[in-house]
From TrEMBL, chain A:
It comes from Mucilaginibacter gossypii. InterPro entries: Sulf_transp_TsuA/YedE. It comes from the Bacteria. Keywords: Membrane, Transmembrane, Transmembrane helix. The chain crosses the membrane at residues 36-57, 77-94, 106-132. This is Uncharacterized protein. The keyword Membrane applies. Pfam families: Sulf_transp (PF04143). The keyword Membrane applies.
Automatic annotation (TrEMBL), chain B:
It is a multi-pass membrane protein. Belongs to the TsuA/YedE (TC 9.B.102) family. The keyword Cell membrane applies. This is YeeE/YedE family protein. It is found in: Cell inner membrane. One of its GO terms (cellular component) is plasma membrane. The keyword Transmembrane applies. Keywords: Cell inner membrane, Cell membrane, Membrane, Transmembrane, Transmembrane helix, Transport. Pfam families: Sulf_transp.
Length: 138, 186
C-alpha cells in the first residue's frame, strides 16, 4: 500500500502526457523538424522547474515525508550514453514515443491499442540489451 | 470545461511535469525515470539467467506503480478530459508529412500507419515493432530516457545526462530528416 502514492503521481503524469500532446506522433515530427516550439517549451520548462526544485531541496536540506535525507545518485558517464542515446533517438522519431508515452499511447484513443505491440517490442529491446551488454562498447 | 478539454499549452504542462521531480523525491526519495520500468519487467518476467536482470526487482516496485498510474491517467485524460480534435500541428509539418505519404491526421497518431492491419506490412512492422525495439534497446544502453536523463539528470546538473539528451535529439534529427521520408513511402 506504501506504493499507492506513486500510482497517483504516475496518474498525474499520464494525464499531463496526453493533455500536452507529448504522446502525439505528430508533435514529435514537428519537434524534430524544428517547426514548432511546443515540445521544446515543455521539455525546457520542465527542466527549469526541476532544476530550481532540486536546488531548493539541496539548499534547505529538505527531507522526505518520512524524515530521511534526500539523496540523488550521480549519473556516471559511459559511451553507452552516446551510442544508446543515438539509437533511442532514432526510435523516438519513428514511434513518436519515449518510454513514458509508450505506456500512455496504448489507451489514448480507439484503435491505438496496437501500440501495445510497440511497448512489448521496447521490453524485448531492453531484454536484448541485457543479453548483449558485455559485448557492447561502453 | 473548455479549458480542460482543450490541449494544454506548453507553459502549463511543462512546469507541471517538472514538479514531478521534487514530488517523487519528497514522497519517497525516488528519482524520476521511466525506462527502468522496462528493465524491471524483464527482470520479473524473463530474467533467463542474464546477470543484468538478476537483482531484487521487487525493491523497485514503486516504478511499476508509477507506470500503471501513467496508463490510468492516460486513459482518464483521453476518455474524459479531451475533445478529440486533430493535433493542431504547424501547417508546414502537415503538408510535408502529407507529401511523404501520411493520410490520417485525425488522432494523436496517424491511423494509416499505427493499426493492427498495418502490423503485417513492412512499413507497419518498422514503425511499431522495430521502432519500439530501438526505444527499449537505446534507452537501456543510454541508461535512461527523456525523463531520467533530460529532465531528472539535467535538473541535477549531471553532464552525462546532457550528453545523452543531445544524442537523443541527434538520433531524432537523423531519423526525421534523412530516413523517415523513405520509410513513410514504403
Amino acid at each position: 500500500m506504501q506504493n499507492i502514492k506513486y500510482l497517483f503521481a504516475g496518474l498525474l503524469f499520464g494525464i499531463l502526457l496526453v493533455k500536452s500532446e507529448v504522446i502525439s506522433w505528430f508533435r514529435i515530427q514537428e519537434m524534430f523538424r524544428l517547426q514548432s516550439f511546443h515540445m521544446y517549451g515543455i521539455i525546457g520548462s520542465a527542466i527549469i522547474v526541476g532544476m530550481i526544485s532540486v536546488m531548493i531541496i539541496k539548499h534547505f536540506k529538505i527531507k522526505t515525508l518520512t524524515g530521511d535525507a534526500i539523496v540523488i545518485p550521480d549519473k556516471k558517464f559511459s559511451w553507452g550514453n552516446v551510442y544508446g542515446g543515438l539509437i533511442f533517438g532514432l526510435g523516438w522519431a519513428i514511434t513518436g514515443a519515449c518510454p513514458g508515452p509508450l505506456f500512455a499511447q496504448i489507451v489514448s484513443g480507439s484503435g491505438f491499442a496496437v501500440t501495445a505491440v510497440t511497448l512489448l517490442s521496447a521490453i524485448l529491446g531492453t531484454w536484448v540489451y541485457g543479453l548483449l551488454r558485455e559485448k557492447l562498447p561502453h | 470545461m473548455d479549458l480542460i478539454t482543450q490541449p494544454w499549452p506548453w507553459y502549463v504542462s511543462g512546469p507541471l511535469i517538472g514538479l514531478i521531480v521534487p514530488a517523487l523525491l519528497i514522497i519517497g526519495n525516488k528519482t524520476f525515470g521511466i525506462s527502468s520500468s522496462l528493465k524491471h519487467i524483464c527482470a520479473a518476467c524473463i530474467p533467463a539467467n542474464i546477470s543484468f536482470f538478476k537483482y531484487d526487482w521487487k525493491k523497485e516496485n514503486w516504478n511499476m506503480f508509477f507506470v500503471v498510474g501513467i496508463v490510468l491517467g492516460g486513459f482518464l485524460a483521453a476518455q474524459y478530459l479531451s475533445a478529440n480534435h486533430p493535433v493542431n500541428i504547424n501547417p508546414q509539418t502537415h503538408a510535408l508529412l502529407q507529401q511523404q505519404g501520411v493520410k490520417d491526421f485525425n488522432g494523436l497518431l496517424p491511423k494509416d500507419i499505427f493499426s493492427f492491419g498495418e502490423l503485417l506490412t513492412l512499413r507497419g512492422f518498422i514503425f511499431m515493432v522495430a521502432g519500439g525495439f530501438l526505444v527499449g534497446f537505446g534507452t537501456r544502453y543510454a541508461n535512461g530516457c527523456t525523463s531520467g536523463h533530460a529532465i531528472m539528470g539535467i535538473s541535477n546538473l549531471q553532464w552525462p545526462s546532457l550528453v545523452a539528451t543531445c544524442c537523443f535529439m541527434a538520433g531524432g534529427f537523423i531519423m526525421s530528416w534523412f530516413i523517415l521520408p523513405y520509410l513513410l513511402r514504403l
